[in-house]
Amino acid sequence: MTTQPRRPLRVLLAKLGMDTHTVGVTIIGHALREAGMEVIFTGLKQTPEMVCAAAIQEDVDVVGISTLSAGHTRSLPKLARLLKEAGADDKLLVAGGVIPQEDKPLLEAAGVDRIFTMGSDTRDIVAYLNDWWAARQAEEAA
Amino acid sequence: MNRPTGPIVSEGEQIARETERWERETRQPSLAGKTERREEFVTQALKWPIKPLYTPADLEEAGFDYSADLGFPGEYPFTRSTRPNGHRTDFWTMTQVTGFGKGEDWAKRARYMLNHGLSGLILEYDLATTNGYDSDDPIVEGEVGRAGMALDSLEDLEKAFDLPFDKLKYLMSVCNAPQPVNLAMIIAALEKKGVDPKDFVLHIVNGILIEYICVGRYIYPPEHGLRIATDAIEYIIRNHPNWAPLSIISAQLQPAKANPVQEIAFSLSICCAYIDAILERGFDIDTVAPYLNHFVVNVDMDFFEGICKLRAFRKCWARLMKERYGATRPEALKIRLMTSPTTIALTLQQPLNNIGRLAIMATACALGGAGENMTTPLHDEAHSLPAEEAIRVGAALQHIVAHETGVAETIDPLAGSYYVETLTKQMEDAAFAELDKIFAMGGAVKAIEAGYFQRALGREQYERNKDIEEGRRKWVGVNHLVLTEEKREIEIFRLNDEMEEQQVAKVRELRARRDQPAVDAALEAVRAAARSGDNLVAVCLEAVKVYATHGEICNAMRDVFGVHSANSQLMGI
Amino acid sequence: MPARPGGSVADIAQRLLAGDIAAGARAIRWLDDRDPRGAALLAAIFGHSGRAQVVGITGPPGAGKSTLTDMLVTEWRARGRRVGVLAVDPSSPFTGGAILGDRVRMGRHATDPGVFIRSLGTRGQAGGLSRSTYDAALVLDAMGYNIVVVETVGVGQDEIDVVNLAHTTVIVAVPGLGDEIQAVKAGIMEAGDIFVVNKADRDGYVATQRQMELMLHLRAQSLPDQPPVPLLRAVAARGEGAAEIVDAVEGHRIALEAAGDFTRRTSARAREQVLALVRDALMERAIRIADDHLMADVTTRRLDPYEAARHILHRLSQGSLAA
């Protein structure tokens, strides 16, 4: 029952579009919580506009999109663009799920910072986020 | 008077003592200095402990009785088989999944499959369709025709049904939330093609309740979803008695990491919700149960969990119909299973291994009593929609199991196995305990609203994933015998982006040339029926025939029923 | 092109007072994280707060609070009100992490600029409300939202916390839960201002409603000076009951203002907040002072607890209490 100030990482998890597979976000959501992060789940059938608005209202550090159907080549770049227009592109944008290698360059060029293909170990994801967070906090302290 | 002297020792107790002796004198000494492969031997999904040896003592302890627990094929409780002659007369119908792109593409692929040994087809739709939207609705941008066929209007289906219907015996339409629009379209398309509905079996999945638990393709709130499903069920019972109005796709619970006991209990409780709803409309159980007893059940890689699950399903259905509803007709007491190897066992890595996995699981299906129908997923399904060679291999695999292994030559060959019978009975007992819990909550709909199923599954998902990450479960290619040099590319079946544009243009053009006043009137009739409680199928038929679109008819129902918003319980919290 | 909110305290304060959402979100973040800039920010905006009506919505798990909140937000928006929602969920006491899932049910308001939804974890705060809930409510107040909803899971002490925080507390009950959950918890039946039985289409609604009526009757008898408390029904999943509840909330505000209680409750909240901050700061220092040496003496019975406490208080009063 500490009242020490803490800065847990805040992560928004969302599913864009019509894909409603939730096992991936459920597993990652639990893993991030076990790792001490605050996970805000926006729910299903989100548009890029809804996710962007939520990311700003919740002032999250990370926006995580899970996608198992093929609509990602349009919706992810759109989300990246909206975040940038809102001045929120300093937030980390990551995507996971069924994303072929050949789509990665397109997505990365469009503003997705990191892609975790299906079957990525949750420990790797947690480590990646923690490392990014540590670097970001060091940057801000400097 | 003669009294027996000394204690009476049953055969089981004798063997139990012998087993203890064997343990002491033979097995334990053989372990001297060695450790077993696993700290704990447990079944894959249920994580129930597995003993080194099962004997008649285990059967006695479980209270196993041949007549009560097994009986004979085609007779209550149907544990050994619902078919009196097993598969000695006919094999199971062999099917595969297809469905993508515009109507014409599906027809081309369907013709290919029918000409290569398949007699049944499964029609799946894109996410725009299964969620009740037209292709030109902005919310579905990027989804048109990808996960399945794009169905905007009757015209799409008319084109898709350019098929050799003489070869096609069975067509399943995997559509839940946008019923009964989908049913209406199919009926109208068949009429246009002059196909006699009595010549083949149409099977609509119509299983909306499971969508609220684990797949998420719902539109209206659960009570309205149930009403719509019941309308479709009633319509088919009255008008197309040779068709099938429901399929409980228990298999959908597997990606959500349900274990076999949860699968049996959750899906049976869901079926009871449909049964109770249709009984309220004045039918009796012996009439309706044969319509509502279609279950799609997958097996996973744990060979015996899969086999025992199928056997337990048959027994549990029979008992449920008899004990809860008082059914008497054999057709009501028999479950109809469509079985399949599960796709969740397949790996992205080293995809050719999946052919081996599929063969093993298909064999388990056959040994568990494949039921009416087996579907083989395709070995590269782990990443995307199938390529043609994978289809051929999948079809051949079923024929290999059927013709080359001999497992279907006798009925339920594993019956009597001490392990199989023990495990089957344990599953049955546990499933009924879980069912009692769900009924105590007020049934499946109430349990859905309370988030009971979702929470149970959410935790399982996390724990199972941890088992793999932490190596407690070995998975070849994933965390065992990994090819570090493997440069496996996900071969997505690339669809033409133009295809979406064409479909969008098509539906807009349709709207421009049809009789708009007739469409408006038809949509108003849909709303009226939604409000009044009249059966929705008839009004949807009228609407599709004047070329009201799929999305328009669903929207008419949205106007009356409202929409169901997602639920954080889908994350299992 | 909106400027980045990573700006200075003055910059953020100015922008949030003008209604900028990103700035308001950043301010809440600073306060939630106990970032030193948070206190400075609060100083800058505190004078602009005190107008919003803080509405607490609480009740047992499964009562449908989020769905109810979603429905009420729609109604408020229809009446032209701007609404902020603070959805508080428990953080794991072991890992400190949390899954905050309430905004899932409020998705339709996501892109409405007149609605600001913010999820907060309790972050180790005993008693269920986030430490920073009060601060976050102040930010939304200063931004110009007319209504600030605080939605919490009511278990144990939570209901009492939210009562101290809110002008108007709405207690949500639901048919079918056992008596022990609906039970008259210490203070809750006296503290609620509006009672709602949600999922009123369920079996058991009539029994639950009668139970609530009885308890409110007893309350009226023991607190005869208070006006009668509304007992309303809702089926939030179907949007039924929103207008009546919003009317009751507005009515409550009018009644409070008429009795001069609106500002009184606002002041009481402020007082609570001040004392809580003092309490926290003192506790932190006390914990530092209660070092192993001192506590070892208590363990070995050289010092009794009362004397140890006196010892700590003495040290506190001597030291500087700044920071």
What does this structure look like?
Chain A has 5 helices and 5 strands, in the order βαβαβαβαβα. Chain A has a 5-stranded parallel beta sheet, sandwiched between helices. In chain A, helix 2 packs parallel to helix 3. The longest helix of chain A is centred in the last third of the chain and has 20 residues. Chain A is globular. Chain B has one domain: Alpha-Beta Barrel (TIM Barrel), CATH 3.20.20.240. Chain B has 22 helices and 7 strands. Chain B has a 7-stranded parallel beta sheet with strand order 4-3-2-1-7-6-5. With about 325 residues, chain C is α/β, with parallel strands linked by helices. Chain C has 3 domains: about 50 residues, no CATH class; about 210 residues, P-loop containing nucleotide triphosphate hydrolases (Rossmann fold, 3-Layer(aba) Sandwich), CATH 3.40.50; about 60 residues, Helix Hairpins (Orthogonal Bundle). Chain C is about 50% helix and about 15% strand. Chain C has a 7-stranded parallel beta sheet, with helices on both faces. Chain C is globular. Chain C starts with 8 loop residues before the first helix and ends in a 5-residue tail after the last helix. The N terminus of chain C is likely disordered. Chains A and C meet through helix 1, strand 2 and helix 2 of A and helix 2, strand 3, strand 4 and helix 11 of C.
Helix-strand blueprint:
The complex is a heterotrimer of chains A (about 140), B (about 575) and C (about 325).
Chain A: E1 10-15, H1 23-34, E2 38-41, H2 48-57, E3 62-67, H3 72-85, E4 92-97, H4 104-110, E5 114-117, H5 122-141
Parallel strand pairs in A: 1-2, 1-3, 3-4, 4-5
Helix pairs in contact in A: 2-3
Chain B: H1 11-30, H2 56-62, H3 66-70, E1 93-98, H4 103-114, E2 120-124, H5 127-130, H6 154-160, E3 170-174, H7 181-193, E4 201-204, H8 208-215, H9 222-239, H10 260-279, H11 285-288, E5 294-299, H12 303-325, H13 330-333, E6 336-341, H14 353-368, E7 373-375, H15 388-404, H16 418-440, H17 444-450, H18 452-469, H19 497-513, H20 516-532, H21 536-545, H22 550-561
Parallel strand pairs in B: 1-2, 1-7, 2-3, 3-4, 5-6, 6-7
Chain C: H1 9-17, H2 21-32, H3 36-45, E1 53-59, H4 65-78, E2 83-89, E3 98-100, E4 115-121, H5 133-143, E5 147-153, H6 158-165, E6 168-173, H7 179-182, H8 188-191, E7 194-197, H9 205-222, E8 231-233, H10 242-258, H11 261-289, H12 292-299, H13 305-318
Parallel strand pairs in C: 1-5, 1-6, 2-4, 2-5, 6-7, 7-8
Helix pairs in contact in C: 1-2, 1-3, 2-3, 2-5, 4-10, 11-13
